[in-house]
Amino acid sequence: QVQLVESGGGLVQAGGSLRLSCVASGRIGSSDAMGWFRQVPGKERDFVAAIAGNGINTAYSDSVKGRFTISRDNVKNMLSLQMNSLKPEDTAAYYCAARRDVSSYFVPHRAASGYDYWGQGTQVTVSS
After folding, report:
1. Nearest to 103 by CA among 54, 56, 61
2. Residue-wise pLDDT tens digits, 1-49
């Protein structure tokens, strides 16, 4: 059983940076893949980035690759997303998620439907 609490969203100008954090209740570890997704009202929830349970294997959407960095600290039960060079099209509600299964040790899962637990979301707004 995992509960996720997000923070760090806000308003920033294009070209600026934000860091999102997601703290998990209880213990997370190598059995849990962690991911970030974003959603605009009326649109599907899109994949942003994910990190496997081993803390090494990562995946990024093409739109954020080179600008965003996902990381995790299992001791602190924390998932982070460092967002640099932000663009107006990055504006969305950002959600953290956790998936617990055997494959999650190696695989930074991209599919939202594969995740078991979700945070409440935090709004990121990028002005031009």
Report:
1. 54
2. 789 999 999 999 999 999 999 999 977 888 899 999 999 999 999 999 9
Strands 10-13 and 122-127: parallel
Q: pLDDT by residue (tens digit) across 61-92?
A: 999 999 999 999 988 889 999 999 999 999 99
What does the alpha-carbon distance between residue 98 and residue 115 come to, in Å, rounded to a whole number?
A: 6
Contact (Cβ atoms closer than 8 angstroms) between residue 70 and residue 81: yes
Q: In whole angstroms, what is the distance from residue 14 CA to residue 87 CA? A: 5
Helical residues (DSSP H) of the chain, grouped into ranges: none
Q: Tell me the per-residue pLDDT of 31-44, one tens digit each, with 9 for 90 and over.
A: 899 999 999 999 99
Give the CA radius of gyration of the chain.
13
Please report, in angstroms and rounded to a whole number, the separation of the first and last CA atoms in the chain: 40
